[in-house]
Amino acid sequence: MVQLVDKVKDNFESVIWRNCSFYNSWRELKLELIQVFNNNSISELEQDNLNYKLLSYLKTHKCLLILDQGETLFQEGQNAGIYRSGYEKCEQFLDYTTNLEHQSCVVFVSNVQRKSLAQQESSYLLKLSGLQESAKEILRMANLKQDEKWSLLIEQYGAIPLYLKIATQSINTLFNNQVSAFLNYQIIPDDLEDILLKQWQYLSKLEQKIMIVVSQEEQEITLETLLHNLSEHPSSLFKAIQSLLRRNLLEKREDENYCNFVTLPIIKQFINELVSADS
Predict the structure, then answer these.
(1) How far is residue 214's CA from residue 221's CA, in Å, rounded to a whole number?
(2) Can you give the C-alpha Rg of the chain in angstroms?
(3) Mean pLDDT along residues 260-274
(4) Contacts with 97 (C-beta within 8 Å, 6 or more apart), sequence order
(5) Cα angle 90-94-97, degrees, rounded to a multiple of 5
(6) d(CA 148, CA 130)
(7) What is the rounded CA–CA span in Å between residue 249 and residue 244?
(8) CB atoms within 10 A of CB 197
């Protein structure tokens, strides 16, 4: 994201980057943004209809506004995309920026896709997938040895840059840059475990059940198998699967006749270890 901003920042009068997790409510974040546009001051009269007020500044200023860690605005224990108390009007603001004319660009960065995004024709979804072959550059820069084992490491961690960087730190520190030793021990680095545990805690009970079933399968799992194993009402199951897809915890794979689901090996390992520890 930093590299992208560096490339496009000259096209804007200003760049405002805010981490959503630092604020107690959407109103608090809005007030700060309006103060930025208003020379650090805001009157009592301006504190009504803040969404529209903020949009008016985006009309008169050519601004790149980045709202980072947007997933922290959503509720824990519910399907993906349901806003926490105090953040419901964030969706209204994002709708405004999509449907009303202005000269700025608003980027909502989140590892959870907003529910309404599919309904907004003028919004653009940039889904960042794994790096694939480019992931090897991360391993090369970390001076990892045994490059013939790199593909196994990349497959295990889904070529996700953050996951790979965490893994390389453990390989550097504990295994003298030896990839095979790290893979043999099948450990999950503490920092990655914390990330996965936080994601797990955000899931609804049904989402957790689905992920447990998926993690117990060695191969891709079909929708019919999930319906059979979980004995849930199809409507509830479908909603939970769609939610997991929005969280990028499930990956959908299609063939001519069926739709199958799979998750990353490292996520499978984490969930199986978690379930084993609780049993």
Answers:
(1) 6
(2) 22
(3) 95
(4) 55, 58, 104, 106
(5) 140
(6) 19
(7) 6
(8) 11
Tell me the two tokens of residue 1: 């994201």
In single-letter form, the type of residue at position 194 comes to D
Mean pLDDT over all residues of the chain? 88
**What is the Cα–Cα distance from 172 to 101, expressed in whole angstroms?**
50
Distance (Å, whole) CA 151 – CA 24: 42
**For the residues of the chain, what is the DSSP string, one character each?**
-HHHHHHHGGGSSEEEEEEGGG-SSHHHHHHHHHHHHTTT---GGGGSSHHHHHHHHHHHS-EEEEEE-GGGGBPTTS-TTPBPTT-HHHHHHHHHHHHS--S-EEEE--SS--GGGGG-TT---------GGGHHHHHHHTT-S-GGGHHHHHHHHTT-HHHHHHHHHHHHHHSTT-HHHHHHHT---HHHHHHHHHHHHHS-HHHHHHHHHHHH-SS-EEHHHHHHHH---HHHHHHHHHHHHHTTSSEEEE-SS-EEEE--HHHHHHHHHHHHHH-
Task: Give residues with Cβ within 8 angstroms of 272, minimum separation 6.
Answer: 215, 216
Cα dist from 69 to 46, 58, 66, 113, 161, whole Å: 27, 21, 10, 12, 16
Model-wide pTM > 0.90: no
Does residue 279 have a pLDDT over 80? no
Give the residue carrying structure tokens 């709708």: 95
Q: pLDDT per residue over 218-241, tens digit each?
A: 889 999 999 999 988 999 999 999
